[in-house]
Amino acid sequence: MSNPILQTFPLGFPWQTQDPFLFCVYHLDHFPKGNGEMGPDPALLEGRSLGNDFNPNQAWRMYHGQTIPGFPYHPHRGFETITIVNKGYCDHSDSLGAAGRFGEGDVQWMTAGRGVQHSEMFPLLHDASDNPLELFQIWLNLPKASKFVEPHFKMLWHEDIPIVKEENAQIKVVAGNYKGTQAIPPAPDSWAADGVNDVAIWNIHVEADSEYTLPKTSSGVTRTLYFYEGSEIFFEGGKIIPNFGVELDPSQEVTFKVGRDKAHFLMLQGRPIEEPVAKYGPFVMNTEEEIQKAMEEYRLTQFGGWPWPYPDNAHDKDRGRFALYPDGTLVEKDTL
């Protein structure tokens, strides 16, 4: 048998990915107590570059937020965003009129398709305690045939997402099939919607001082394991520390031993689209000419405009998790 580990690499910002994924970002912010208006204590903002705060040496960042942390309205075209919020909350608003508050294990799957604007703000809802945020955002490409599909917004609530519990591990099945456990169907025009493409997104947690075997799948797909929290893991012939990625041979199972601390992984897998990729900021097409057309169309149409009162739109502080869909359907999950 050949070595199932093809290569290892350090994790930057964003994380290095393989086709059909475009990139993945990991946000871990130890946000402080809120100020009553869903932002941090103003005294804590001293010395920050508001509007462009990405300082990795800080315990938390405002990103492009001025009063509430997050990302005010911005466009996307030609791909999908999959946002996994393990801790904290995200307030979503978009140009379709859709909105939502999700977190504490929820996942949002949004197909940008022909074009959409959205904002993603991280409201600090707790004034008497800290507001930690742990979030992955994954960009999954769309093939040329699907670049101009209608935008689509879908919520995968944490109560419904399958979680497989094994002797030493727990696997959250966001996409794909894990040993017979099938994820919730993704957005309908997604590359992940066709099982032939073998797209899988798993959040894997393995107990300390234990062993775990990642099952094999079909050849012809890319598979990357991201080790983002823990102390160390041991493969045959080597050791890997946190903040490293591992490119794997999907046709082989791989067994590793976990060191003194519980280990946390994100696994991304899928059949490559194998088409040219042209990227410019929030636009992903197949050619530079298509990128120029996307930019021109956005300047002219704003992809439908912005129906919300603020570019950094956030929802009422006391509101619980909810989703408002473009057709007016409202789903209320709970109250805070």
From TrEMBL:
<protein>
    <submittedName>
        <fullName>Pirin family protein</fullName>
    </submittedName>
</protein>
<feature type="domain" description="Pirin N-terminal">
    <location>
        <begin position="62"/>
        <end position="140"/>
    </location>
</feature>
<comment type="similarity">
    <text>Belongs to the pirin family.</text>
</comment>
<dbReference type="InterPro" id="IPR012093">
    <property type="entry name" value="Pirin"/>
</dbReference>
<dbReference type="Pfam" id="PF02678">
    <property type="entry name" value="Pirin"/>
</dbReference>
<dbReference type="InterPro" id="IPR011051">
    <property type="entry name" value="RmlC_Cupin_sf"/>
</dbReference>
<dbReference type="InterPro" id="IPR003829">
    <property type="entry name" value="Pirin_N_dom"/>
</dbReference>
<dbReference type="Pfam" id="PF05726">
    <property type="entry name" value="Pirin_C"/>
</dbReference>
<dbReference type="InterPro" id="IPR008778">
    <property type="entry name" value="Pirin_C_dom"/>
</dbReference>
<dbReference type="InterPro" id="IPR014710">
    <property type="entry name" value="RmlC-like_jellyroll"/>
</dbReference>
<feature type="domain" description="Pirin C-terminal">
    <location>
        <begin position="202"/>
        <end position="304"/>
    </location>
</feature>
